[in-house]
From TrEMBL:
Pfam families: adh_short_C2. It comes from the Bacteria. It comes from Aquincola agrisoli. This is SDR family oxidoreductase. Belongs to the short-chain dehydrogenases/reductases (SDR) family.
Amino acid sequence: MNLEIEGKWALVCAASKGLGRGCAEALVADGVNVVITARGDAALQATAEALRAFNPAAQVVAVAGDITTPEGRAAALAACPQVDILVNNAGGPPPGDFRDWDRADWLRAVEANMLTPIELIKAVVDGMAERGYGRVINITSSSVKAPIDTLGLSNGARSGLTGFVAGVARQPRLASRNVTLNNILPGFFDTDRLRSGFTKAAETSGQSIDDVSAARRNTVPAQRFGSPQEFGALCAFLCSQRAGYITGQNLLIDGGAFPGTY
């Protein structure tokens, strides 16, 4: 399928690895020029080189920095000639018991997983509307659909972003100008973050990492974890000209783990 996005410019956040990298790979494969951001410069530059080799016809610009800061956002936006596609992504806050979190913990979570995406959306959507094309993808979490008790910081901050996007996406001055905003809600994907969680769970429980991983995998009807590449493929489709009638939606990609009908 021709996605008809060749030559567009995308800003992909937290793209040095994991789901962000999967999105960047899928966009580059379809001829999209990308600006990728992440805090770790070494990993980011390595990813940039890999993306350039993946499709030499696409331009790849790497901007190291913290996207949750005004300076980090300004640098990333300045590196992109125009933002046709915005993929918002940031590492989720740590798990824990809400009784142990103070105000500073909540502010960090809201800053990273709600306010930063909103600031970036604010910076780019009017330009998208003027040009008659724009795609915003927010990588959130399946916990928005089915909250996880130990992920209260993430549940709260990401749900706030979800509510915000639901309203903005339905503004006629955006939707009628071929500007869409959607959220992708990942379940368990084979990423460094997931493996790190298994390591911590193994240390706490005394089980082996393999046993912890197997137990988690068995909760997924697909009996496997997702790959960043298949996540990226969904992202690329939602960014395509073919998906212009999809906006304001929360698309769950979790191998069937969510047990509900709606």
